[in-house]
Design a protein that fits this description.
Elements (H helix, E strand, L loop, with lengths): L6 H30 L4 H23 L9 H22 L4 H8 L2 H13 L5 H18 L10 H21 L5 H22 L6 H27 L2 H8 L1 H14 L5 H35 L1
Helix pairs in contact: 1-9, 1-10, 1-11, 2-3, 2-8, 2-9, 3-7, 3-8, 4-7, 4-11, 4-12, 5-6, 5-7, 6-12, 10-12
Length: 301
């Protein structure tokens, strides 16, 4: 039998993922504001990781040099470039798209992860999960509505960001067996800083006092959000945490309405509901499949 996680750990995980989604929703809102005032997405990403790396410095000092020992430097570079590309594209899209709509389309990332796990990781995906992937992408089409008056070409920025993020998650699975969380976070920050620095210089806009505060907010709250996600998935299974991921849609809807008077239409809510249901179904199927593997291994032993 697969042992259940202690209730205390589960509650810690749920609390952490709820806080992470709350933090990341405010980060997205701050990025949208900065983009609307003229800051390029590349500059925002560059400064976000500068601040994030500074926030990591105390942890690196306490952990020591051994925490950064790596067996797969090129894997870190590939993962960081994917994360950096996803972040730039998503931040870029927020300048043009309603906040909740962009976040709803970004929920297609788990669908990409499932579909790409076959060629990238050689995993087996059953027919039920393939059907859920197709249904989820139908939900995306309901939101985007290509060919209609409400179609936004900027939605392709979000979809591209979701694709790159999914690839980054798959690379994380590949390297997590030998690399520590701190090493992954640190090398990601360093590589993204180096990659975005030239483009940030070309698009640079001198921040004013309010901009500096918002950029600090993005960097610090983004780092807290990512750390809370690590805590969440270390203390509770993905199937438990997954429903809380989608609370970001609630927070971004509220923030979009309060700040920009955005109100998602029926297509966004319907499409988001379809994507969420498909994502939750995939997580449920993957969890049940993992349990069967554990039980089969226990019987074989």
């Amino acid at each position: 039998m697969l042992r259940k996680a202690p209730a205390q750990n589960t509650m810690r995980g749920l609390s952490a993922i709820a806080l992470a989604m709350f933090c990341m929703s405010f980060v997205d809102a701050a990025v949208k504001w900065l983009g609307g005032t003229g800051f390029h997405a590349v500059q925002i990403v560059f400064l976000r990781y500068v601040i994030g790396l500074i926030a990591l410095a105390p942890l690196l000092w306490m952990a020591g040099r051994d925490a950064l020992v790596t067996e797969r430097p090129f894997a870190h570079i590939r993962r960081a470039l994917l994360i950096g590309s996803a972040t730039v594209l998503f931040f870029w899209s927020l300048k043009y798209m309603p906040l909740a709509e962009a976040v709803a389309i970004a929920f297609t990332a788990p669908l990409f992860i499932t579909a790409l796990s076959v060629p990238v990781l050689g995993e087996r995906v059953g027919v039920h999960r393939w059907i859920a992937v197709v249904v989820g992408f139908v939900g995306m089409l309901v939101i985007v509505r290509p060919g209609s008056d409400s179609f936004r070409s900027e939605a392709f920025l979000v979809l591209s960001a979701a694709l790159f993020f999914a690839l980054a998650v798959l690379y994380t699975r590949k390297i997590s067996a030998t690399e520590s969380n701190l090493a992954i976070l640190t090398y990601t920050s360093i590589v993204i800083l180096v990659a975005t620095a030239p483009f940030a210089a070309m698009t640079w806009r001198a921040p004013e006092q309010m901009d500096v505060l918002l950029l600090l907010f993005v960097g610090l709250l983004g780092s807290i959000g990512h750390f809370m996600m690590i805590v969440a998935y270390r203390n509770a299974p993905a199937a438990v945490n997954a429903p809380m991921d989608y609370t970001a849609l609630i927070w971004t809807s509220i923030l979009g309405w309060l700040i920009w008077h955005e109100t998602p239409d029926w297509g966004v809510w319907l499409g988001a509901a379809i994507i969420v249901c498909a994502g939750l179904y995939i997580v449920n199927r993957e969890t049940r499949y993992a349990r069967r593997l554990v039980r089969a291994g226990a019987r074989a032993a």
